Amino acid sequence: MLTSGNDLEPTPHIALLPSAGMGHLTPFIRLVALLTSNNVKVTFITPHPTVSISESEGFSQLFSTFPQITRMQLHLLPLEDSSSKSEDPFYYHFELIRRSSHLLSPLLASLSPPLSALVTDMSLTSTVIPITDALQIPNYIFFTSSAKMLSLFISFHTLVDPKAKDFVEISGIEPIPRSWIPPPLLEDTNNLMKIYFTESGKKMKESSGILVNTYESIDGESLAALNKGLVLKGLPLPPVIAIGPLPPFKFEKSQPLAWLDDQQAESVLYVSFGSRTTISREQIRELGHGLVRSGKRFLWVIKDKKVDQEDEVELVDLIGHGLMGKVKERGMVVKNWLNQEEVLSHPAVGWFLSHCGWNSITEALWHGVPMLLWPQHGDQKINADLVERIGVGMWVKNWGWGGDPIVVVKGKEIAETVVKMTGNEFLRERSAQVRDEARMAVGEGGSSHERLNDLIDSWKSSA
Ligand code: UDP
Ligand code: UDP
To answer: ipTM of the predicted structure?
Structure first.
């Protein structure tokens, strides 16, 4: 019997280790699916337990679709000292993984055939590099935000008192206004975000390569500065490899979206603040009034708790009977979770009011949906700026960070902004162009497609 050329090629064996939260897990799942489709043997190491139900469901769906992926669980040890538990539950989980990392070494060493590389989430960089160094396994870091944010991550430990200046200066990058920097990084006291940013950012330069879910035409300035060694002022970095936007992975299970099916093409504003962001009750009500007042049809996902399994309040108790009645006349409102990929790919969806999580942005670019940008925390202002620059989103900067107890944006202003944004035809035309560029980047011959192929080839040659 003849064997095809492909069967004779060495198969690299790659293990991947994500951290916590859908914003980190979703791109990992997409990368795992893509590598598996490219005949790479994948072992996916899944931290157990997960923080949210969405994460454990994400794992189940992936493994049932691709039974050829090997699953290894990293059983996290409970912490005796739970003082950091009061901080963000997802950052707390990074800490749990860090403290359980001695379990990783025997796990990696036991894998067969021996690994060609380990791909780790950026939040685990400082934890994992000493382990892979000791085992002599190449370590790639997967950075799940933009290359612009990566420049800040890598250089943060070198910045002198960033809160004292109006702009943060990073060599090779346009200065970043201080107000766009994630607030915990500017606090005097240590917090989990600041610790992981400092320690993992510093260690990044020792990795074998940094994968980023972005692409040349939207993030070219930062990619060039990173790859030319400008960001650390001449100190060379490992190759920064733009492999995005990672195409959505089609889940087998889907949710019925009957209400959307009944709406006209491009007539609905989709409103969501991602997987782990809550806004105040007062702001929820103002937003509801604003949406009603805008006269647009809308599909609105509301979260009341950061972690989905704790989110038990009834919708009507959140927004009140009066507003609920009005909302139902023009829109559809749901609690907690919708399959966003299905929503954004639906022909009825015309616009997206987003908190600017990097995955939400890459998904909207992929589907050519223009955005109303309302960054809430973390990297989201830096992301919002990128989207505004490429001409597919509108950002009202004085709305500030979400969660700011002083700034509650009034319904009237929200309504006016929605009307203005949805009436902007330029945003829609430009979104269609950007969608085509995104698909070209990962299509045959596209920049991200080539980068990923080169990477897989380099793994093959060492397998
Ligand atoms: N997501 C979803 N349904 C929801 C909320 C979020 O499918 O109701 C997905 C979304 O498509 C994205 C991820 O969860 O892939 C959230 O990541 P993002 O970076 O946008 O924001 P984060 O949740 O980390 O703030
Ligand atoms: N409200 C608001 N923003 C608006 C409109 C109304 O916060 O854009 C507040 C209003 O101040 C009042 C409550 O919502 O306290 C009820 O407003 P409305 O007259 O719309 O009645 P309901 O929605 O309760 O039927």
So the answer is: 0.88
The residue among 360, 365, 364, 363 whose CA lies nearest residue 379 is 360
Whole-number Å distance between alpha carbons of 214 and 242: 5
For the record, the structure tokens of 292 come out as 């009603």
The single residue of 13, 24, 355, 377 carrying the catalytic annotation is: 24
As a whole number of angstroms, the distance between CA 232 and CA 75 comes to 36
Tell me, what amino acid is at 443? G
Listed in sequence order, the DSSP H helices in 66-176 are 89-99, 104-110, 125-135, 147-155
Burial of 244 (0-12, 13-18, 19+ CB in 10 A): buried
Respond yes or no on whether the N-terminal peptide bond of residue 245 is cis (omega within 30° of 0). yes
- Over the stretch 183-199, which tens digit does the pLDDT of each residue have? 999 999 889 899 999 99
What is the phi/psi pair of residue 452, to 5°?
A: -65, -40
- pLDDT digits 0-9 by tens, 10-54: 899 999 999 999 999 999 999 999 999 999 999 999 999 999 999
User: Which of 88, 93, 121, 289 is labelled catalytic?
Assistant: 121
The ligand placed nearest to the CA atom of residue 21 is: 1
The two structure tokens encoding residue 106: 């025997």
Geometric angle at alpha carbon 246, from 401 and 297, rounded to 5°: 55
- Kindly state if the Cβ of 323 falls inside 6 Å of ligand 2: yes
Instruction: Give the separation between CA 397 and CA 381, rounded to whole angstroms.
Output: 9
End-to-end CA distance of the chain: 25
pLDDT in tens, 411-462: 999 999 999 999 999 999 999 999 999 999 999 999 999 999 999 999 998 8
pTM confidence score: 0.93
Residues 226 and 237: beta-carbon distance below 8 Å: yes
Annotated catalytic residue 7: no
Closest CA to 148 of 220, 229, 196: 220
Is there a catalytic annotation at residue 404? no
